[in-house]
Amino acid sequence: MKLEKYSFGTGDRFGHQGKAQLDAIKKAKEGGVDIAIVWNKSHREHLIVGTSPGDVRKEADDAVSSSSWSGAYYVDADHIGLSNVDSFMGPSDFFTIDVADFIGEKAGEDELEAFVKKYSEYCGQLSIDGILTPLEITIDKVRNIAEKYLVAVNQAAEIYRYIESKKGKDNFITEVSMDETAEPQTPEELLFILAALGEKGVPVQTIAPKFTGRFNKGVDYQGDVEQFNREFNDDICVIRYSVSAFNLPNNLKLSIHSGSDKFSIYPGIRRAIEEHNAGIHVKTAGTSWLEELIGLAESGESSLELVKEIYARAYSRFDELCVPYSTVIEIDRNLLPSPDEFRKWDGLQVARAIRHDASCSDYDVNIRQLLHVGYKVAAEFGDTYLQALKEHSDIVGKHVSSNLFEKHITPLFL
After folding, report:
1. Domain that holds residue 341
2. Which residues, in sequence order, are CB contacts of 189 under 8 Å at separation 6+?
3. Which of 155, 245, 332, 403 has the maximal Cβ count within 10 Å?
4. CA-based angle 265:206:72, to the nearest 5?
5. Is residue 96 situated within a structural domain?
6. 253 and 370 share a domain?
């Protein structure tokens, strides 16, 4: 199983937007760009919403069947580890192996020495096509990288072997994720992470490193855009070099776990993938969930009241909802409108507050982030929330599809 050059991970919290998401992918194909759609959902999201991996498979298959889609599609077991991978085995054919928690654990001295000895040949100035200045490699740097990442790579290999034993070789896509950690990986670190993965025989097709800057949920990139552009370009070049140097799959590509809506870095990503003829995998996380709220708000009446009640409950449970996401949100609690104030707004004002449009004076990054992590509240409404989605599927689906196509796919590929 080989992942296509371009692929898009479309998170769908409640499993009702598969067809709308696929419509955006179909529109891209009509515009001349083939993108594989990957429906991704994590173990944590399943627990919160009360779904199972089989529900994601059904959503994907139903969307494809009803849309007569003949292109590639996958179901991603997102951010899995050994403790929770079993329930994903049957439904999933794409596995995002998350080993961020193992970064920093130190391997045994013999293993470290063997790694340093093997890769000492790279010490000195390493010139890689496409990178302006040579990488400066020293013995100490190789050892430091090994001390920081070897255990994480070993864990990735262990999880991969376990999945392989259940699914069979070449019957699934492997991604390795190291993005949910405090410090970004440098191009030098990525080089030796890939070397270790190749040495362990992990056929990684996408890798998700941690980049400089903040990738907060649902809002734009926060950081030095030019620095990100340099890192992204250099990482593409390191991957191209590593494919041949370390016997890795020739379709290996970068994966951007965007947390949704990193519009300011899309131009740099596009320039780099075009310049280097490189692939890309992008995960958009909770974008569709927020578009659902926008559509329900615009629908008015009971659906608008439902959105207002979701906000009120999320506001009152701020710590409960936000602490688990503390590393990927930045909310100024003092700037959030009170539920009483929020209830006074009409549907269009509520929609404008949630919709990611920096040119709109009503857009509120604090409201958007709170609701982004507040899907647990909507899940607690059960059938009431799901029925609202069904009743207003036309307007909700229109928002989901147009947002994905116009704000994400178009600036990246068209």
Report:
1. 289-400
2. 145, 148, 149
3. 403
4. 95
5. yes
6. no
